[in-house]
């Protein structure tokens, strides 16, 4: 008699096998498995599509040399102040033979790359303001002109890394262990019996600290509920006020103006006009700005 595995177990083993193969391919290709890949590994089909796209953009034939592709990725990520992606592609830029002097800031890069700054800025924050004149200015004949093929690849890279920066922020992805301030990030195993606060399941000590903070807040909420039972006259409004006070005083809430200034300076050196940011294009009482229609 042949014992058959339950359908769910077969499916799970197939997913794990697929993920294992993807991670091996990523490691062989790049020499590392970065934390973005590890997080996306929770959804192997999505990771497969994403990884193939990245591979085509950064490593396959195209009009732009490899080091310039990584520099454009740095410019795009820096526009959103995504230090994780900036650091990752600074390493890749050097690995493929990029000039280390360019990493001192945008002003050290060739003028041709610097000319992308305006369209990078608009694509990142207010893409509806882009007009055909922005495209024409980059394509016009001259020493620092872009060919149409080069510009198409550059624009795809810019928009790709603007989007990826949002993914990095949304998932709270940390730097790799070999980067400054980095630690590992491993997806939780579906068969793991470890506690939620284990390093493997939440990404190193940062995950453990976050879980401890949650436990502290939950304990405070429990005490509030117990005190409510003891005090018959406490209203819902009073309980809501107490809850907000406890939440504010807990370790989960940190002042929004605290920032690593040394890290910011390493990123902002690739940004011109850092004050330029998103502004709603549906402002009432004002003439609507023109939109750029691809057709």
TrEMBL record:
Major place of residence: cytoplasm
One term of GO molecular function: oxidoreductase activity, acting on peroxide as acceptor
Gene assigned in the entry: Sesn2_0
Organism this protein belongs to: Haliaeetus albicilla (White-tailed sea-eagle)
Family of this protein: Belongs to the sestrin family.
Designated name of the protein: SESN2 protein
Keyword Oxidoreductase applies: yes
Residue stretches of biased makeup (Low complexity): 191-202
Single GO biological process annotation from the record: regulation of response to reactive oxygen species
């Amino acid at each position: 008699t042949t014992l058959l595995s339950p359908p769910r177990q077969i499916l799970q083993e197939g997913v794990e096998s697929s993920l294992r193969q993807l991670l091996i391919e990523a490691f062989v290709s790049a020499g590392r498995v970065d934390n973005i890949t590890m997080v996306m590994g929770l959804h192997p089909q999505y990771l497969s599509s994403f990884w193939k796209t990245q591979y085509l953009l950064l490593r396959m034939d195209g009009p732009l040399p490899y080091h310039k592709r990584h520099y454009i990725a740095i410019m795009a990520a820096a526009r959103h102040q995504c230090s994780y992606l900036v650091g990752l592609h600074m390493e890749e830029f050097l690995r493929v033979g990029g000039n280390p002097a360019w990493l001192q800031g945008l002003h050290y890069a060739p003028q041709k790359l610097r000319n992308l700054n305006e369209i990078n800025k608009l694509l990142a924050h207010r893409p509806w303001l882009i007009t055909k004149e922005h495209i024409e200015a980059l394509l016009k004949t001259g020493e620092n002109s872009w060919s149409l093929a080069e510009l198409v690849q550059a624009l795809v890279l810019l928009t790709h890394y603007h989007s990826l920066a949002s993914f990095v922020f949304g998932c709270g992805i940390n730097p790799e262990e070999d980067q400054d301030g980095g630690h590992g990030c491993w997806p939780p195993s579906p068969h793991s019996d470890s506690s939620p606060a284990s390093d493997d399941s939440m990404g190193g000590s940062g995950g453990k600290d976050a879980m401890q903070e949650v436990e502290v807040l939950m304990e405070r909420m429990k005490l509030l509920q117990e005190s409510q039972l003891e005090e018959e006259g406490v209203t819902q409004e009073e309980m809501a006020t107490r809850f907000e006070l406890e939440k504010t005083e807990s370790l989960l809430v940190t002042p929004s103006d605290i920032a690593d200034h040394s890290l910011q300076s390493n990123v902002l050196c690739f940004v011109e006009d850092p004050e330029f940011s998103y502004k709603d294009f549906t402002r009432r009482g004002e003439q609507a700005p023109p939109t750029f229609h691809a057709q």
